[in-house]
Amino acid sequence: MAVKWLDKPEDHDFDAAADYLSLLAESDAVDKTVAALKKAPPVTRKAKDILRAAGLALLPETNAHVRADLFKISGGKKLSPILLVRGDGRKGTPLQVADGYHRVCASYLTDENTGIPCRLVSWQS
């Protein structure tokens, strides 16, 4: 079954991204980065590449949130696009999945080559 996507992230996704990013950076950088995510044009990236760039493990389908997203996928419901903050390969800093880790995993479990609509920005300062 193909994964279907909403045209744009939901408002609460940006709040979730801000909560997560606040663990990594000061509030000024977080606020500017989330503002950039809201304005960023959509890009498409493969599930397998997102996980690799972020250095994240694939969560199993037994994970409650992944299972819920798989249920949405099998029911033909649309998922919200992923919010990403670019890492720095020169410094060994990984990509940050600011919001959507479970959706990436569910998409990967459906098809690792799934094209995922994302908002991708660099850290703003």
Order of helices and strands: EHHEHHEEEHE
Q: Whole-number average pLDDT?
A: 96
The CATH class, by name, is Alpha Beta
**C-alpha Rg (nearest Å):** 14 Å
What would you call the structural class? Answer: alpha/beta
Distance between the termini: 41 Å
Reported by name, the CATH topology is: Conserved hypothetical protein from pyrococcus furiosus pfu- 392566-001, ParB domain
Oligomer: single chain
> Which range does the strand content fall in?
15-25%
Catalogue the unreliable spans. none
Number of DSSP-assigned strands:
6
Instruction: Return the domain count.
Output: 1
Question: Architecture in CATH?
Answer: Alpha-Beta Complex
Helix share bin:
40-55%
Strand order of the largest sheet: 2-6-4-5
Contiguous helical run count: 5
Main beta sheet: strand number and arrangement?
A: 4 strands, mixed
Molecular shape: globular
Protein name: ParB/Sulfiredoxin domain-containing protein
Organism: Mycobacterium dioxanotrophicus
Summary of the model, kept short:
This is ParB/Sulfiredoxin domain-containing protein. With 125 residues, this protein is an alpha/beta fold.
Key descriptive features of the protein:
alpha/beta; Conserved hypothetical protein from pyrococcus furiosus pfu- 392566-001, ParB domain; two-stranded parallel ribbon; 5 helices; 42% helix
